[in-house]
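Q: I'm teaching a short session on how sequence maps to structure, and I want students to see two examples side by side rather than one. Could you give me a first protein with its sequence written out and its structure tokens following it? Keep the formatting plain so it prints cleanly on a handout.
A: Of course. Example one:
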Amino acid sequence: MNKHNELQLYLASGSPRRHELLTQLGYRFEVLRLDVPEQREEGEKPQDYVCRLARDKATAGVAAAPTAGVAAAPTALPVLGADTIVVLGDRVLEKPSDLLDAKDMLEALSGKVHQVMTAVALATPERCDVRLVTTNVAFRKLDEAEIEAYWRTGEPCDKAGAYAIQGIAGKFVSRIEGSYSAVVGLPLLETDLLIKHHLEQSR
């Protein structure tokens, strides 16, 4: 393999949004599609929950990388894992199960400020470094008709908090404080620094 085409890391995520954002950073990577349980533990704080999920995905990727069937590369390559949750007060808004669930979430977010927490983890067999980015997102008031119309687009079905800021739901957002890319699914600044640090340390 040409040195300029050699892999630098694996991405432990099937999310097309994370794939696009990591591509934007210019790194050479392969995707690992893993089935990692996403279940919040009783009493677990939202920030601890999202950091644990990112760590679990990255470390699962480290275990899977040598037999994942992707392009040949040293098994010591780092694995990037990430997870995003939507938090309103003490409530963690996961992916909606149906229209009623999505309506409940979007009605709760309507006219309020919530937090989007994205954790990114970079793991090797020796260590795992995690960064947490929290962004404040304000929604304008939403009415029932537009919430139902939004659900019919199909966009909210597999999104935390039942919305995608980079899609149709961008029109619901009146203000954002923090990292836009983190709300989409991968904080560009923190991810870049994490990978750069590892690559510099491994030279």
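Q: Perfect. Now a second example for contrast.
A: Example two:
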Amino acid sequence: MQTCPYIEASFQILGKKWNGQIIHYLSSCENQTAHFSDMKRDLKGITARALSMKLSELTDEGLVEKKVESGSTVTISYVLSEKGTDLADSLKPIQEWAKRNMDVEIPNKKEAK
């Protein structure tokens, strides 16, 4: 029996460190949008270099879009694409399963969205 190519392709994305957390983070943000500095602050343990690389990968996969707004200053934000939103929605049942079946230490209730 072979493995499902769709599951395999999904885990090529989700199996990489930080990708799932970034997608979940953006899905939890207002308008599914966040600035780099907000993600860097809130995703504990990720380096600026790693975050930059992951956002580029997720953009290349079509899951995240980079929005550049110019005015008096240039503002860059990242937003989930339709494809990214669809993936984030598919992670919710996994999150619920983990809540029921995994012993996870939650340092701050506010962080468990």
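Q: What should students look for in example two?
A: Point them to this: The helical segments are 5-14, 19-28, 36-42, 48-60, 82-101. Also worth mentioning: Residues 50 and 86 are 24 Å apart (CA to CA).
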